[in-house]
Specification:
This protein is mainly α and about 375 residues long. The chain has 19 helices and six strands. A two-stranded antiparallel sheet has the order 1-4. The longest helix has 24 residues, at about 75-100. It is globular. It starts with a helix and ends with a helix.
Length: about 375
Amino acid sequence: MKFPWTLVAIMVACYLVAPKQTNARPLSASEHPSNRLSTYNEGVIEARLDQIQLPFEIKYNAKVRYYIKDYVATGYKQTQDMLGRSLMYFPIFEHYLTIYGLPKELMYLPIVESALNPRAKSTAGAAGLWQLMPSTAKDYGLRIDGQVDERLDPYKSTEAAVQILADLYKQFRDWRLVLVAYNCGQGKLLQAMRTANCKDYWEMEPYLPEQTQRYVPAYIAAAYVVNFYDHHDLRPEYPSLTLRETRALKVYQSLSFQEIASACGLSPSTVALLNPGYVQKQIPASSKGHFLILPASAVNVFKNFLAGKAIGNLHFSIPSNTFQSTYIVAKGDRIESLASLFQCKVEDIMKWNGLTEREVFVNQELIVFLPSELSKRA
């Protein structure tokens, strides 16, 4: 029997060219990228896709299969990072989709656009979670200048993107066509419809720009990976505990990140990470207010800081036979429904919280005064 010297030579060569790692945990068999597809059976994948609710009928084809493989195998590390960030941004997406009455499954769209990176920028000039172009963003009321780029603001960019999607649906009445128009523009979609002489997405797909032909399949694959990542041994890389539980509020006067960080016992980098829309690391003054996102643990300290600076200092009489409490706005909440819930007027909630508009937003902490009888029952 001959000894397999060729095999030995190959093994030695692989060892010599392999990158050396120190203090690294070796990959288990299930963690190896090639084995993340161990459950990648065509029939199983199709059956799982049938369980997903999307605003249109799902078609499983080679393009969808390619993107699923890319998410769960080739780019699995990036996918784990993206899944971790979904904890921060999905509630914001769901909030505005609910407020505007759109399918909540559209929250998967920013995965395709930016991999949930609020600082993502394209060579074409698009930016943010929803990859908005400057002209479109300004058309929908977003501010872009040397101080602020609201395309990078998770709240304001999401509301603008949802308004865009709502307007496109009014025009095309088909969510596949809406996604196409969002990606390549209404003009190119209409041109493809004329060339194909139809309004069916799958028939006109060959006449769309090459990048757009991949867009709907990538969206379907994104929905798949969010719902079934655990079946491929993917482990979300969640942000630090400080960033997992956040609150949002509006500030009206100019504040630097350094001021905010010092007041809250945070690092300026943490404030910057949560608030990417402020180009100069300074929140400019605004009569309508700018969003500020902070770790939940820092909100009360920050409010005390504002009170000490007489910023937003509130003056009102406490309603009789009530006790003070707080409420964290949940996705889809409206100020009108909260007033009904707390047995008060909309104007009361605005007065108690120094609000200038009839608007509440997810993860906002509100002061409310509840009837004393509720405390007694509790």
